[in-house]
Amino acid sequence: MSRAPHRYRNRIELLQGTLDMLILQCLQREPQHGYGIGQALRARSGEVLQVETGSLYPALHRLERQGWAVSEWRQTGQNQRAKFYSITASGRRQLEQHRSKWEAMVTAISSILNPVAES
């Protein structure tokens, strides 16, 4: 039995869901502080994605409220105090759901942009 594909209700949900997915993906490797997450997103996207602090920190707080990430204060490599975020088990499950939705969206958009020639 196949499930109906998830449909994003609106643009905000799509954008927040995408940013949440990208942050959770960054946290898969190791706990990171906000600045490090922003740098990782920029570097891994080939400098294409630059998430501003006005979007990044509200997203991190949202992930914490959802129980998908937790934070703790630690010292950075430069001996500064910073809040480090870690993904939770619930966050890992959510990341997998986000990835499935994203892959379905990419497939749908690709089908529109690259239609198969009809015989």
Explain how this protein is built.
The protein is α+β, with helices and mostly antiparallel strands. The chain has one domain (11-107): Winged helix-like DNA-binding domain superfamily/Winged helix DNA-binding domain (Arc Repressor Mutant, subunit A, Orthogonal Bundle). 56% of the residues lie in helices and 13% in strands. It has four helices and three strands, in the order αβααββα. It has a three-stranded antiparallel β-sheet. Strand 2 and strand 3 form a beta hairpin. Helix 1 packs across helix 3 and helix 1 packs across helix 4 (89-113). The longest helix is centred in the C-terminal third of the chain and has 25 residues, at 89-113. The chain is elongated and about 60 Å long.
Which labels suit this protein?
Arc Repressor Mutant, subunit A, single chain, 119 residues, three-stranded antiparallel sheet
Short description:
This protein has 119 residues and is an alpha+beta fold. It has four helices and three strands, in the order H-E-H-H-E-E-H.
Spatial strand order of the main sheet? 1-3-2
In percent terms, what proportion of residues is strand?
A: 5-15%
Poorly predicted residue ranges: 7-11
Shape assignment = elongated
> If you compute it from the alpha carbons, what radius of gyration comes out, rounded to the nearest whole angstrom?
17 Å
Mean pLDDT rating = 87
From the 3D structure, determine the CATH topology.
Arc Repressor Mutant, subunit A
Give the total of beta strands.
3
Secondary-structure content class: alpha+beta
Helices, by number, come to 4
CATH top level class name: Mainly Alpha
CATH architecture: Orthogonal Bundle
User: How many domains make up the 3D coordinates?
Assistant: 1
Write the element-wise H/E pattern from the N-terminal end onward: HEHHEEH
- Could you estimate the helical fraction of the residues in percent? 55-70%
